[in-house]
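Quick one: structure tokens for this chain, please?
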Amino acid sequence: MQRHGILKQFGLQSEKLELLSPANLHLMVAERQVDIGFAGFTTMATARSEGKDLIVVHGVFSPVNMVFVAKDSPIRSLRDLKGRKLGVFGGPGSTTFVFLAVLAKKWNGIDLFREVELVSAPATALIELLDRGEVDAALLGTTESIRMFAQQRYRVLLDLSDEYKAHQGGRAPAHVTVATSEQFARANPDIVRDYLKAYEATVAYIRVHPEVWGEYAKSINVEDAEEIRLLQEKMLPNIVDSWDDDQIAVQKDYLNLVHEIVGDSVLKAVPNDLIRNEYNP
């Protein structure tokens, strides 16, 4: 949105703030250090359920993450991870791991919190651990998932979004969303609405200008042509174009699953007023 001047097209000026830990964004929004930004969906839901002044006003994309095992591994499904070591790039509290835990318990009959030994480490370190056989499987970040898939160094045990879509009618929830504080949104509804206009215009631009994938890949240090192709192939179908009733229903169903399956350790109660559509363009 910034690089191609789309924010400016809608009269918006932004101060980009880089965060080493995106999970802390809800704290920065709640403390008015950030007005609006991308944030993990379950993290926002947890914060809202704890009384923080946060709302979700749009989806961004559903997971492109994958779980990998060695090519000769006897592990054929998530059920086979029982009693084994699973590497997790964001830790057990991350939005992506919670997504995987829901898939595991709901459709694979295994509780990753209780029946698997979790090993938290950066994705690059997990690849090394998988190489050495020190973990039996690894949930990797977006970039690392694309790279390992392209290089075919390991076997894909599970693609998170594909698995969810297979069980839930072909649509997956956005695990990354646009979040803001309720106070900011009420005081500046036009700014929030214009930001969402800019976001949807950006998605439309991406869909007709495939060259942006090369630009984006370069920004995250991906230069291999096959990895760039797969980045586009995997991410494009998972981008959320519109915040319609159907997508909101998917988001609500997912939160109910998180509460039902993962329970109090992540989401003690599903907040009824987290997801908003009154700022839709």
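Residues 70 and 131 are 8 Å apart (CA to CA).
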